Amino acid sequence: MAASQSIPTGIPILLETISGTGAGSTFSFQSDPAATDFSAIFQATSGTTISADLQVSLDGGLTFTNYVPTLITAAGAKAVNASGSTPLVAGALYRFNYTTLTGTWKIYVTSN
Questions:
Q1: How many domains does the chain have?
Q2: Residue 38 belongs to what domain range?
Q3: 27-29 and 5-7 beta bridge pairing
């Protein structure tokens, strides 16, 4: 398994550039220094069509399951809130599974 990218708090970053279907890069969120809940915004730009599930692994990346199905369905930003049925958890491994993709897409993320 490739090394996971750790997403820092409060810094927007390019998560990946993707041009084919399948599993994307593995990433995790750093713990908030204040130990408070956090949220994240994902932004997709550039391509023609896209559909991607946000997946999670709690066993170190051996198995991934859909956490937020079809989180990304078009260009634009999507938020995963600190409250609700699917809050993000620091330290868990995440990735996108791209089920539909035409063109080359850039996926950005920032957490607070």
A1: 1
A2: 13-111
A3: parallel
Domain-embedded: residue 5 = no
61-94 pLDDT per residue, tens: 999 999 999 999 999 999 998 877 888 888 899 9
Residue 73 lies in a domain: yes
Across 21-46, b (16+ Cβ under 10 Å) vs e yields: eeebbbbbbeeeeeeeebebebbbee
CATH number at residue 92: 2.60.120.1300
Do the domain assignments include residue 77?
yes
- The verdict on pTM exceeding 0.85 is yes
Q: Which residue has the tokens 């220094």?
A: 33
Contacts of 27 (CB under 8 A, 6+ apart): 4, 5, 6, 7, 15, 93, 94, 95, 109
Instruction: Give pLDDT tens digits for 11-40.
Output: 999 999 999 999 999 999 987 666 677 889
